[in-house]
Amino acid sequence: MPIRLGIAGIRLSLRLWVSALIALLAGACLTPIPAAAATPSASSVAAVPAPIGVPAATRATESGSATANGPRGSANSLAADGNRLVPLGPGDSITIQVYGQPDMTSTVYVADDGTVRIPLAGTVSVSGATPVQAAQRIAQALKSGGYFVNPVVTVSLVQSRSERVSVLGEVHQPGTYAIDPGTTVFDLLALAGGETANGADVVYVRRHEANGHVTSYPVDLQSLGGAGGRAVLGADNQAASRHLQGGDELFVPQAEHFYIYGEVNAPNSYKLEPGMTMIEAVARAGGITPRGSSRRIEVKRLGKNGRYTMTHASADELVQADDVIRVKESLF
Q1: In this structure, which long-range contacts are made by residues 30-39, counting pairs with CB atoms below 8 Å and at least 24 apart in sequence?
Q2: Chain-centre distance for alpha carbon 90
Q3: Is-contact 209 215, C-beta < 8 A?
Q4: Per-residue pLDDT of the chain in tens (332 residues, 90 and over written 9)
Q5: How far apart, in Å, do the first and last CA atoms of the chain sit?
Q6: Which residues contact 308 (CB under 8 A, 6 or more apart)?
Q7: Backbone dihedral angles phi then psi of residue 184, each to the nearest 5 degrees
Q8: With 231 labelled, which of 4, 50, 127, 188 sits at a CA distance of 20 to 30 A?
Q9: Strand ranges (DSSP E) for 130-174?
């Protein structure tokens, strides 16, 4: 009987030891690892998707990732970020993501004072900063608060409202419009309702330079559209037409006109087209009446001395701005 009790006691002790060992191992496996201490690779940061629920048309046009020590990414991506000239400003909508902390993802608006409110970090100023610079400032604020060791923050520009351009002149709806990094002159004209019938083919982008001067860049709309135009514009002017900046002004001047009367079917004032000849001007006015003659065309033109002169015009002569054309009756 004592031997049997001794064996039962040994079995009970072994069972208790095994149970304790299993509980110890299970507890060690379930111990959480702080997510803030993990530092992801550059490739994993780039793979962070756009926030769910944001329409495709308004998803981020620019984004950048950074730690408190500086931007993250390859040399090529950092160089591309350096070329982005659109700073954040009041009214902009941005998405903020912290790697490994999905509950901290949020889409916020930049306040009027140029700040955004970040959980655990308070308000952070992002006005005038690019998305990469804003991400670095937010990462530094989170690190300074003591909640994270080396957070990786991604800031994405969802919609820009701080970058605005004025549209003036011969457009249906002149005013001030918000732009994003991809807005072109054609896009801006469409926002303003398009040109009026008196709008010119060459418009001007007025830009306030860093030195305080205002530079006017001519933009030939026909040339940009592939139809050819009057002006051969330099590379700087073509670049200005494709990359608008906040504070720019787009001015659409009134087109040059000519006047035609006499023996034509529709005497009136008409828009002067590039390279238009006298016979084309007559055709624009509906053609010559049965009483008129294409050989009896006169043009009244303002000379360099400030005086008007009346001369005979041939059919292939070029029409100039403010010409007054008269088609006379046939002699026979």
Answers
A1: 34/149, 35/100, 35/101, 36/100, 36/101, 36/147, 36/148, 36/149, 36/150, 36/151, 37/149, 37/150, 38/99, 38/100, 39/67, 39/150, 39/152
A2: 16
A3: yes
A4: 444 545 555 565 666 565 666 555 544 443 443 433 334 433 333 333 333 333 333 344 566 676 666 676 543 444 444 434 468 888 888 999 999 888 889 899 988 888 999 888 889 999 888 889 999 999 999 988 888 888 999 998 887 777 788 999 999 999 988 887 778 888 889 999 999 988 988 899 998 887 888 888 888 887 765 444 444 455 555 555 557 877 889 999 999 999 999 999 999 999 998 889 999 999 999 999 999 998 999 999 988 888 889 999 998 999 999 999 999 998 87
A5: 151
A6: 300, 301, 302
A7: -110, 175
A8: 188
A9: 153-159, 164-169
Given a contact cutoff of 8 angstroms between Cβ atoms, the answer to whether 328 and 296 are in contact is: yes
pTM summary value: 0.54
Q: Strand ranges (DSSP E) for 126-264? A: 153-159, 164-169, 175-178, 202-208, 214-220, 249-252, 257-262
Distance between CA 264 and CA 287 in Å, rounded?
Answer: 6
Quote the distance between the C-alpha of residue 149 and its chain's center.
36
The whole-angstrom separation of Cα 85 and Cα 250 is 19
Closest C-alpha to 72, from 90, 50, 52, 47:
47
Spatial separation of the C-alpha atoms in residues 142 and 155, rounded to whole Å:
14
